[in-house]
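Student: Hello, beginner here. Can you help me understand the protein record under this note? Any guidance would be welcome.
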Amino acid sequence: MRELVITVTISLFYYCLNSQVITRQSRSRVDQIENGLSKFTSPKEILQPISKKPLGSCSVNERMSFYKIPGLSIALIDNYKVEWTRTYGTINNDNNIPVNTETLFEAASTTKLLTALITLHFVEKGILDLDKDVNSYLVRWKIPENEFTKNNAVTLRLLLTHQSGMNKPDGGFSSTGFPSIIQTLKGETPATNPAASIGFKPGSKWSYSNFGYIVIQLILEDVLKIPFYQIAGETVFTKTGMKNSTLNLPLSEEKHTNEAMPHSADGKAHPSAVDPNSVAHAGLMTTPSDLGKMLIELMKAYNGKSDLIIDHEMAKKMFSLETAIDPKDMFGLSLGEGLGVFLSGNGESFSFLHPGSNLPGSECWTIGIPGTGQGAVIMANGEMGSLLAMEIIEAISNVYDWPTFK
């Protein structure tokens, strides 16, 4: 009997350590969100500052079933704290292992927000310069010169803001193995993408490019002489307590057992298609609560409440408009581009966001509102996860009275 009591006590102790206390008010808000989704109409209608609509009548589980999304994880930020986390479904349609708060999801292109933060940390330290020709930093590979770069250098500022003129690395890698970062940039086997090149005058227009962030990874590795995953760990993960985040891929066998596997639109599970050697654009494996810690740190820095990674002045630069984005390039949304982040609204309604989408089916949405210390991170292991994420964001903005959506 004594052994049973000890076992139960220990179990309860660890349960309390790993569980989040949710107040009655928070529980009521969670219930409203979980059962108040409206069916997706368009990104513009959901994400633009508009008069609030009443909550819908759909549940999270109903919409997951509709979109064939096996697993979902949410972290809600309020008053600069992760107020609650919720998980739903399974990590793989082929098993019944439930998603938990430490399940690792692919952050996909939300990784770019992390990469931008790391880059600006070293700009602040004077190790990098936003407006210097990046070929002066690169050692193992150089951006090929052509008619567009002859009088217009590619800089970190232009790479961070998708204005470098660099092409998109359409393709991937063959079954013979993973390409090195240099093979990817050169378009050499086993990479199946074309070589990285400059296709228009740097600084002349906005054109989204993963290649730009792969180049940033190479710059950081060449300058600091350590792998990018180690740079991220020392610069961000350890400092913010992001203990469930990694760029060291492939995942270890232990971590893989709690990995949310990608699922295509038909609900079929697939192996991850992330290239373990080129990760700065879309390779982060993490949890919503970990990403929430990064968003909170960014909001605090912007408001002069922290300088853990970047200080107030650098955060202001990060969230300053570098270029407006044509709405036709962003699903009808009126967004601006900061240094590695999308911007929306002004004043108290100002928000920053970065979605992410990896084939064959991993989705991530992050949004932060510095003026009120609010935000959310939503991660799903289904190809239609972005649509569900926008339905959830609409419900959250209604229940938590987000100023950016008034």
Observations:
- Confidence is low (pLDDT under 50) at residues 1-19.
- The longest helix spans residues 2-18.
- The chain is about 35% helix and 15% strand.
- The beta strands are 71-78, 81-89, 105-106, 285-286, 323-324, 336-337, 342-344, 351-358, 362-369, 374-380.
